[in-house]
Amino acid sequence: MVLSIKIAEKKLNLRDGLFNLDNIYKSLRGKLLSMGYIMVEKEQEYKTTQYGEGVNFKFLYFKAFDDFAKVDSEVLFKFENLKKIKGLHKGDLALTIKPALTLDYKHRWGNNAFNKFFFNLYRKVFQDDLKKRYFGNVVRDTAEVYDYIKDLLDEYKH
Description:
The chain is of the alpha+beta class. The chain has one domain. The protein has helices spanning about 20-35, 115-125, 125-155, and strands at about 5, 10-20, 40-50, 50-65, 70-85, 90-105. Strands 1, 2, 3, 4, 5 and 6 form a six-stranded antiparallel beta sheet that branches. Helix 1 runs antiparallel to helix 3 (about 125-155). About 15% of the residues are buried.
């Protein structure tokens, strides 16, 4: 019985910031790989408006804690009103990180009513253990990725 639990999103909005898009992409990819995550680029979109360029890119990253739980997260960068200045981009950014914890992702506990009963019983009885073992790691890793992105963005402030 697969159960996906959404965890609080992290958001960041910047106006008129300076960005090095290539560095953000490559650095974030390296950071996630060093944390043991598998990262997939889900979509990338470029558009031109009267106010400048727009770039959206979305990453999915995931990691299995064990045979019972894994984290699936999504990072969405929305750059708008971009203008090229000295090899950098100046514009607006809306960043969203959406983490989710998936329990029983291998679907071992949903085969019949008896297993579903024990799955729900386990979740209720060992709720504190689940929070310590899984939720804490997801929240900590999400905060680490968020702080890392903020540090990347702070490199170009004047």
